[in-house]
Design brief:
The complex is a heterotrimer of chains A (about 260), B (about 350) and C (about 270). Chain A has 13 helices and no strands. With about 260 residues, chain A is mainly alpha-helical. Chain B has about 350 residues and is of the alpha+beta class. In chain B, the strands form 4 sheets. Chain B has a 6-stranded mixed sheet, sandwiched between helices. A 5-stranded antiparallel sheet of chain B has the order 2-1-4-5-6, covered by helices on one side. A 5-stranded antiparallel sheet of chain B has the order 14-13-12-15-21. In chain B, helix 2 packs across helix 3, helix 2 packs parallel to helix 4 and helix 3 crosses helix 4. Chain B is elongated, with a radius of gyration of 24 Å. In chain B, about 40% of the residues are buried. Chain C is about 40% helix and about 20% strand. Chain C has 9 helices and 9 strands. Classes of the chains: A mainly alpha (about 260), B alpha+beta (about 350), C alpha/beta (about 270). Chains in contact: A-B, A-C. The interface between A and B is medium-sized, with 17 and 23 residues.
Chain lengths: ~260, ~350, ~270
């Protein structure tokens, strides 16, 4: 028999859960299951799915490479302007993705600040290429990795690192054998979040990288365009996105949400 | 040059200024004692290299670990030290075995060999059966033993122990104390920080008393116990310590009153009165003892087969008396009523301050 | 009523009045302006903005609320509106016959009529840096091409042109609207693309056109009054204005081809 207090707590939590759950239920309920297989078998759909998975994984890996040093500096080094850098880190979350895409174009587009040198000097263009997709995804996903990892670093007991040094570990060894293993859960959680964000990224991708089938048309872009011509296809593709995300996040929950695993 | 520790530590830790000279021969165990905030842990951390010196020099054997004058400084990982911390600080992600093997692996020992030696050390400390457990699952006592094993396993020239037995209950502490003695008798120098007098007395060959970052007294445990130089040390060794001006036949106490004590020289002196020499009566005592005072019993502490009674005396500093538990009841000492206290003059030891 | 309660009452009255005022739009309210909602395909942007302001100038008391989007989006919104039991627009102008036919079948519009035609052209950045000479050049490997997605009429027309010329474009970027194609080329991200001639005209020098020779595919733009409109008079007046000489002049000025005003084939 539930106590009245936990019943109250459940009641208060219900609206939030409903907000998250109802659209998902509607998606599954109204899906055109009879046409599902036919729609999924379309080559464009599978290509878009593969591109989405590969690019989001690469982007997540990039966020770790770029974000870990940044998180370290923010957590461990006191320097002037760290507040400004923190604002910078939070920027992609606040910025509407399309605006992010526009900004990326102005920086890395063929006529952009940096992009023009890439184009003229190396013949390297980022828009219209999978690399451009990865760039757009990394841009929007980086804050998630940095903020989570920074919190993890701050929570770490630095005295353990001192103990390791007295036992003979060099700074590099301390990082490798003590800091990193203890940081792993936060890092994994950050990577999972950043991957999820990268997978769902649309506005910056379509604005910066364009919509080239097989090269920059990720699943979210395919959904958007499908909505124009064949809404049922859009529903099925959305379900695929949901299913993939849920599968990966639930499958990896032991690593990124250890508190949740019984 | 002796192959021991020669340290002159001048350092700033927060508000505290540390100014300590510490020497030890190989095989010696030095206990650093003192009240909270005296700088004991900071001293250990400075020796380990975790706190930089602003003045002074630390030399271990032939190696200069640190020299503030030249700016030479060996990083902690390059020093021949092994530290057991007050909070244990075991690595939560490693098993007890791997914790102990950590130091060995950092020094280049191969994994299998390191684990073997680590297992031996765990056995020596009586926790071999917990080798595969994670620190979170260990009891306080077990964790303390693993932490000690971890420091001992690297066979350091300088072993630094910060309150190694503090988290244990009385029995466990006694047991581990006994086991620790032979283990610490290695070839190196051991510096032990403790606030437990019994630990200091039984494990150490020498005592260094720290107060406010400075050494106020040092010597063998016996020397320190017989001639405590500060109230804290007196408390530590469990005697009454009174300061005053020596006169013929006695001491004029700084806090008021006269203490008859033959052989008291002139000048500033310290007088030690062991609690056993303090007798407590409910009625004015017979005979003619030279030191008789009135007062009120304030606090009674039962310690097994003894009892300690703190008596507040009129117009003079209080004294701690040691009586039998039966006497506490017989004399009804806990009713706060008036009592008489006597001290035989011959049982007062006076020495120059 | 006690002291403190009186100001509270005044606030309530004020807030209620404000809500009522904003809630009731100008729709059909005597004394307020008539609001005419016009849905128009993206390629009609510049032309219809001019037509709307001209119409408002000629008809004081009418405000034209112009909604521009890709034709499929307009159709979708009309459909959703109908499902909800409200009317999303009073007038709708699409970029192709097929979409209008769907609306007729759904009973959502009355008697559509073609009011303009458009032609496709290849757009390039000023100076034609990639040296695109014709449709055949679009198939050059390495050329960055932007095309409208076949989901929108411009995309379908483009596919027809390319099919007829037997050209296969190498990895084009499919944009959600023809305006997005133009933007891509203007930004320099694409070397060439296929848009309407009107889009090149609207770009005012930021784009250059390379003509598509031959008859080319001609886009037809029908316009109709919606079945459920509550502003039938104003809506019909707008349609008439678009088809009138002055309306046609505006369209011609934007680069549209005239139409014979034929009804949409059923």
């Amino acid at each position: 028999m539930r106590s009245p207090r936990s019943a109250l707590a459940l009641g208060l939590a219900l609206p939030g859960a409903a907000l998250l759950g109802l659209p998902l239920v509607a998606l599954v309920w109204k899906a055109p299951w009879s046409r599902a297989v036919e729609l999924l078998a379309e080559p464009g759909a599978l290509t878009a799915l593969r591109l989405s998975l590969v690019s989001s994984m690469v982007a997540a890996a990039l966020t770790v490479v770029l974000g870990l040093p940044l998180a370290w500096v923010q957590a461990r080094v006191a320097y002037r302007g760290s507040g400004l850098v923190r604002a910078l880190i939070t920027l992609p979350i606040v910025l509407p993705p399309v605006s992010g895409g526009v900004a990326l174009l102005l920086a890395f587009g063929r006529r952009g600040l940096v992009g023009q040198w890439l184009d003229r000097g190396l013949g390297l263009g980022l828009p219209f290429t999978p690399a451009g997709v990865v760039l757009a995804q990394t841009f929007v996903a980086l804050p998630f990795l940095v903020l989570t990892t920074e919190a993890g670093l701050r929570a770490l007991d630095t005295r353990l690192e001192h103990a390791a040094r007295t036992l003979g570990a060099s700074r590099a060894e301390v990082f490798r054998r003590v800091t990193l293993p203890l940081l792993a859960p936060s890092l994994a959680a950050g990577a999972a979040l950043s991957w999820a964000r990268a997978l769902g990224e649309f506005g910056a991708t379509i604005t910066f990288a364009g919509n080239v089938a097989g090269r920059t048309q990720t699943l979210p872009l395919a959904v958007f365009l499908a909505l124009q011509g064949d809404p049922e296809s859009a529903v099925v593709l959305s379900l695929v996105l949901v299913a993939v995300s849920v599968a990966v996040l639930v499958g990896l929950r032991r690593h990124w949400a250890p508190g949740l695993v019984r | 040059m002796t192959a021991g520790l020669s340290a002159a530590v001048g350092a700033r830790v927060g508000e505290l200024r540390l100014d300590v000279a510490l020497d030890a021969l190989p095989g010696e165990v030095v206990a650093v004692v003192g009240p909270n905030g005296a700088g004991k842990s900071s001293l250990l951390r400075a020796l380990a290299g975790l706190v930089p010196l602003c003045a002074g020099r630390v030399v271990m054997g032939d190696t200069v670990l640190e020299d503030a004058a030249t700016g030479h400084r060996l990083a902690p990982e390059r020093r021949p030290v092994g530290v057991a911390f007050q909070d244990r600080l075991l690595f939560p992600h490693l098993s007890a075995l791997d914790n102990v093997a950590f130091g060995l692996r950092c020094r280049g020992v191969r994994r299998a060999e390191a684990r073997r030696r680590a297992a031996e050390w765990l056995d020596r400390l009586g926790v071999g059966h917990r080798a595969v457990s994670r620190p979170a699952t260990l009891s306080g006592g077990e964790a303390q033993r693993v932490a000690l094993a971890r420091a001992l396993a690297v066979e350091p020239a300088l072993l630094l122990l910060d309150e190694p037995l503090s988290a244990l209950d009385v029995e466990a502490r006694a047991a581990l104390r006994r086991e620790l003695r032979p283990l610490m008798a290695g070839a190196g120098v051991a510096v032990l920080v403790t606030h437990d007098p019994l630990e200091a007395m039984t494990l150490a060959g020498r005592l260094v008393v720290l107060e406010h970052g400075r050494v106020v007294q040092h010597g063998t445990p016996r020397e320190v116990a017989e001639r405590p130089r500060s109230p804290w040390v007196a408390e530590l060794v469990g005697v009454n310590l009174l300061a005053g001006q020596g006169r013929d036949g006695g001491v004029e106490l700084a806090e008021g009153g006269w203490l008859a004590a033959p052989g008291a020289g002139r000048g500033q002196v310290l007088a030690v009165v062991h609690p056993r020499a303090v007798a407590v009566h409910r009625r004015p005592p017979e005979g003619s003892p030279r030191n008789v005072w009135t007062g009120r019993a304030e606090a009674v502490e039962l310690l097994g087969d003894r009892a300690r009674v703190r008596v507040a005396l009129d117009g003079r500093p209080p004294l701690v008396a040691e009586v039998t538990p039966a006497a506490v009841t017989d004399l009804a000492l806990d009713d706060g009523g008036e009592v008489w206290v006597t001290v035989k003059a011959t049982e007062v030891r006076v020495f120059p301050a | 009523m006690t002291g403190p309660a009186r100001p509270c009452r005044r606030w309530v009255t004020l807030v209620t009045a404000a809500l009522v005022a904003t809630g009731c739009g100008g729709q059909g309210e005597p004394g307020g302006p008539t609001r005419l909602v016009v849905f128009a395909a993206a390629s009609l942007t510049e032309a219809f903005e001019a037509l709307a302001s001209d119409f408002e100038a000629a008809h004081p008391g009418v405000v034209v609320d112009l909604h521009l989007a890709g034709t499929p989006t307009l159709v979708f919104q009309l459909r959703e509106g109908a499902r909800a039991g409200s009317v999303a627009a009073d007038v709708v102008a699409t970029a192709d016959d097929a979409s209008m036919r769907d609306l007729v079948e759904a009973g959502m519009v009355l008697r559509p009529v073609v009011f303009a035609r458009n032609r496709l052209a290849i757009a390039v950045p000023p100076g034609n840096p990639a040296g695109v000479g014709g449709v055949a050049d679009l198939g050059r490997p390495g050329l960055r091409v932007a095309l409208a997605d076949p989901a929108v009429p411009a995309g379908r027309y483009t596919e027809e042109v390319l099919a007829r010329a037997g050209v296969e474009v190498h990895r084009p970027s499919r944009e959600p609207s023809v305006k997005a194609v133009a933007t891509r080329i203007e930004l320099g991200e694409a070397d060439a693309g296929v848009v309407y001639v009107t889009d090149v005209r609207a770009a005012r020098g930021r784009l250059e056109a390379v003509a598509i020779p031959g008859a080319g595919v001609v886009a037809r733009y029908p316009i109709a009054v919606t079945a459920g409109t509550e502003q039938r008079q104003a809506a019909e007046a707008f349609v008439a204005f678009v088809r009138s000489a002055s309306g046609q002049e505006v369209l011609a000025g934007a680069g549209f081809l005239a139409s014979a005003g034929e009804p949409v084939p059923g």
